[in-house]
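<goal> How does this chain fold?
<body> The protein record starts here
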Amino acid sequence: MNINRFENNPLVTPSDVKPLHDGYEVIGAFNAGVAKYLDETLLLMRVAERPISEDDNIIKAPYIDKNSGKLEIIEFRKDDPRYDYSDPRMIKPAGQPDRSIYLTSLSYIRIARSKDGINFTVDEEAFLYPFNDYQIFGVEDARCTQIDDNYYISYTSVSPMGICDSIIKTSDFKTFEDLGNAFAPENKDILLFPEKINGSYYALHRPSLKSMGNYDIWIASSPDLECWGHHEHLLGIREGMWDSGRIGGGLVPIKTEKGWLELYHGATPENRYCMGAVLLDLDDPTKVISRTKDPIMEPDFSYEQNGFFGDVVFGCGGIISGDVLTMYYGVADTSIAGCTLKISDILLKLEEG
């Protein structure tokens, strides 16, 4: 399938972002929700800041202290056999690969702005910074859905209590109203549909089960965007394929004549992330019409293959203009890139199975 990656990719890199905190370095500016607001394209990007360690044998883990609200640091020694440091994103108890106790960076949401959709400038301050007990390890991976004159930003809140889906509402990208936690831990990748369907709002989400089951996509509905129920399993991983390890929602669902088009991410057990597509029924999005057999996008370019966590393309948002989708996507958990695709091409790919 024809994908036109921007010539000046990546569009935003860690070097373009000044750290908010003294003694920290920006190691990632990626996985951005996207909005068209007034005459600008906004990237609500996840910025990850890591405390600088002067000792190569020391890993520093930042967190927000629940009592003081201040940013604090705890230190771990790499030669301590009680901990596993194989994943650079987290610190895990040795022998428990699916459980982390601290993250190696603190994430928050910062806005990058562009008049032309290609050249971006980064705001000096954070737009969404951890503000409650469910976010003491940070907030991550925003998606942005416009419904009427409001923008609903769904994102992941991370704390020792788990990983949950949260929502805020804004009309100006300056102030916001907190709508709380939509789904309890463990859950990620919440996406809101851009309009009511037969009187209900719908959302995709991805439970991360610890006992049994897979990392699959589920769908839920709500009368008011705050109370969610009627949860149904929507899409599962596929053994032996590019999405055999985990899947999760990517872009806000796109309304087409043939159905709701959802671009989702899938990964192998080895954590190679690609993008695929699924088509859902217009009147009943709990029904899957078709799904791509092969990825529509893979980490083929060097900036997608090499970085903090390599071999990752991770779309979180885009802008629609006629048949053209401009998608902004995270690369290697490090930077943000852009590309254009034709919606008609994706639909043809779906017809092929």
User: Anything to note?
Assistant: Residues 4-351 form a domain with the Tachylectin-2; Chain A fold (CATH 2.115.10.20). The first strand starts at residue 4 and ends at 5. The chain has a mean pLDDT of 96. The CA atoms of residues 29 and 136 lie 19 Å apart.
